[in-house]
Amino acid sequence: MSQKQHVILGYPDSGKTTFLAALWHILDAGSASSIVLDEMSGDLRYLNEIKRTWLKCEQVPRTLTSSEELVEMHVRDATTSNRSVLRLPDFSGETFLSLIADRECEEDFVSILQDSDGILFFVNADRANDALFVTDFDFPDEDPGAEQDSAGEQVETAEADRVVDFDPRRMPEQTRIIDILQILQAPVLQKGRRRLVIAISAWDVVAADEVEPSEWVAREMPMLAQYLATNAELYDVRHCGISAQGGSFEGEARNQLLA
Asked: What is the DSSP letter of 63?
């Protein structure tokens, strides 16, 4: 039996837990056309809880650091009968923020990343673009750290009044994604060329644009797209759009989903 280990990554509100709830429902119900679930290990209470919430068309709560769960799905290809073990740890977004901001993580996290053959990295299409551009800022002609006295002469203000400490948690999302992908190339985590899927959740929001997932990434996260294009020897990349929720859980849209 071939054993492939895959890890889900993504920052807060990226759609990871909603996808896991939908995946568990499909496999548990046996409604998947190409994959058959043979065996399951892990905390089924956790999986059943997020599945019940998802089936009621309620917002699946984002994973908290204290409730991260590791599940293993023993699956079989319905056509070829090839068998695989899919290890799917549902890491919280806070875990990745801590890795970026503090440069530290738990040993279990390192172990799972070391063993991962593939990465499913989630980004959410239904969110504001947090990219920063030079054109977003207004640069005054005079020194921004200077004030004028009554005579019109510039007076230097205190350095502390105009310096803001760098906060890595406020970096644009695509910058944080690239940082994670670069960390995965560190000697302790590097594992040759990995398969990487950029999974764009809430795809129903942009489906009307008739844009391909790879084109969406190039448009909304151009720096990430350029990083992936220039590091093909590190990552075998695919893109996909996923709508695990199916639409809005508010108002009439929720009633339609429940029906």
From this structure: P
